[in-house]
Amino acid sequence: MANVHEIEKGIYRISTGADVFPGGLQFNQFLIADEEPLLFHTGPRRMFPEVKAAVERILPVDRLRYISFSHLEADECGSLNEWLAAAPSSVAVCSRMAAMVSVGDSADRPARPLGDGEELVLGAHRLRWSDTPHLPHGMDCGYLFEETTHTLLCGDLFSQIGSDLPPLTEGDILGPSVEMMKRFTGGFAYSKDAGALFEKLAKMAPRTLASMHGSAWRGDGTRLLLALRDALS
Ligand SMILES: [Fe+2]
Ligand SMILES: [Fe+2]
Fold this sequence. Notes:
By secondary structure, this protein is an alpha/beta fold. 28% of the residues lie in helices and 27% in strands.
């Protein structure tokens, strides 16, 4: 069963641990409860029943308005069509690249693509999309920043090994995330623009980094993003 924790006002982290490799891994989705609720990441298709049950603990699934994700991969958007069916007035929200290359074809309804810097207002929460191609992978990659709580939904950035990590920490996640990259992915698809993309995210001054795999982190997000840039360059 998924764990649910409110990590910022109206922002819920839904987390399921899995033994996908030694040490395990958490798959996290983030639900922003508002007039027009948004789910960031769907979870893999086979996890859909558990994630749906977790969302239902917070609000009726058919109230969902936006199903968003960072890039095309099973854990980010594998159950997109199941969500579009369960929430009939919902629409997929992704980068323009993702919509053009894949989602426009594979999703059961047309997506709402967001351009770099474009705003999406949910009610009290205000989101801004940032294109971050190849950071850490996927030419369609991008992230959402929630401006009222200063929360960066940072997807695969700061992924940490472990199936039972705390929902929110102020401890070290940089070391564990660099370690995970070394052990399992061989690093980032580090493009020539990666440094500038880290600086673009850092400039938003996030207070909470909501990572998709592992604990969310609270602190000086600018400092931590630039530290990850430096660790990788
Ligand atoms: Fe990914
Ligand atoms: Fe992921």
